[in-house]
Amino acid sequence: MDQPLLELDNLRVDFHTPTGIVHAVRGLSFSLGRERLGIVGESGCGKSTTAKLVLGLLPATRGTIRFEGGPVGAQRDRAWRALRQRMQMVPQDPLAALDRRLPVGEQVVEPLAIHALEANAEARREKALALFEAAMARGATFEKGAITTISTGERPALIGADGFQRVVDRAVVAAGAWSKPLAAALGDKVPLDTERGYNVSFPRVSGLTSRPIGFEGHGFVMTPLESGLRIGGAVEFGGLEAAPNHARTRILYDKASQFVEGLPAFETGTLWMGFRPSLPDSLPVIGAASRNPHVVYAFGHGHLGLTQSAGTAELAADLVEGKAPAIDAKPFRAQRF
Question: Residue 142 and which of 68, 73, 276, 336 are 20 to 30 A apart at CA?
């Protein structure tokens, strides 16, 4: 008999919580060759936990995992990284797993770079385009345009400076920091500004910290990620046009160097600056435009865009369909200013 591809033996995972121990997985055993196995159960029964165990993203309380005869553990060493090139978990909601701060194309190619599956940027780009073309072949449509205004007609027209125009039944303005001028064209003066934040990331760097650490009084946070190590912080009001000031990023790095030994050289990191669309009352803008009820706003979440994205999407979907939202959306209207 051929050796199994994957073996789980008496696997158990316990999580310690303030209210006691949660037994997420208990006594799980199975072996797989090249066949498929469906694990079915209600929410919270341990399906995703099992997948994370197999990938070595969580440590097992008890039991063993073997892939092609070799052990799988949570030690993020060279052997683990090599194994991760051949194993992957697809989330239940892949769209929600995307990082809203990065273009989709960059996120598609990031694992190829981290695991060194493609040697150069052009090869990674070709892989990303192949996925895009596969989606188009299955009926997806994609249009890209720099929209400068939205009309007040019953059917909103999305209008661009280059002559682009598209008439739609409904429109949702979810352009983050770029939403302010679109709202102004629809009669809503929203006092939005950009809180520009900075970070530097070091791919494939691990072992310096096992959890996010905020350094009180020093204005930065160090976060271990699956892709490496990130040092971030700082806030400035800088609008959309000013160039990044990565002297701020260097200050964050220099402060981190005072507390943590073994940081890679600053020049080897990937620099980033993001625009947080922030409002003076710290609430987002969700609701219909003043001059066109067929245009719905969904922007202005400040530092909590990813956290609040799912709830905002549900509210916006209800408003687009003319349904009563699950919660009162009046506090989020643009007309509150």
Answer: 276
d(CA 127, CA 87): 18
Shared domain for 160 and 233, answered yes or no, is no
* Per-residue confidence (pLDDT) for residue 102, from 0 to 100: 60
How far apart are the C-alpha atoms of 108 and 128, rounded to whole Å? 6
- CATH code at 59? 3.40.50.300
pTM passes above 0.90: no
Closest CA to 200 of 237, 123, 240, 255: 255
Give residue 255's domain range. 193-278
In a domain, 244, yes or no: yes
* Residue 1 falls inside a structural domain: no
The DSSP-derived string for 233-277 is EEEEE-TTTSPP-THHHHHHHHHHHHH-TTPPPGGGSEEEEEEEE
Residues 302 and 175 in one domain: yes
Whether residue 277 contacts residue 302, with contact meaning beta carbons closer than 8 Å, is answered with yes
* Pairing verdict, β 213-215 and 220-225: antiparallel
Amino acid type, 132: F
**pLDDT under 70: residue ranges of the chain:** 1, 74, 76, 91-121
Question: For 33-175, where are the alpha helices, taking DSSP H only?
Answer: 47-55, 78-84, 104-114, 121-137
82: which residues sit within 8 A by CB, 6+ positions away?
A: none
Residues 162 and 176 in one domain: yes
What are phi and psi for residue 334, nearest 5 degrees? -65, -25
142 lies in a domain?
no
Looking at 278, 295, 311, the residue that finishes a domain is: 278
Q: What does DSSP assign to residue 199? A: E
- Find the largest Cα–Cα distance for the chain: 72
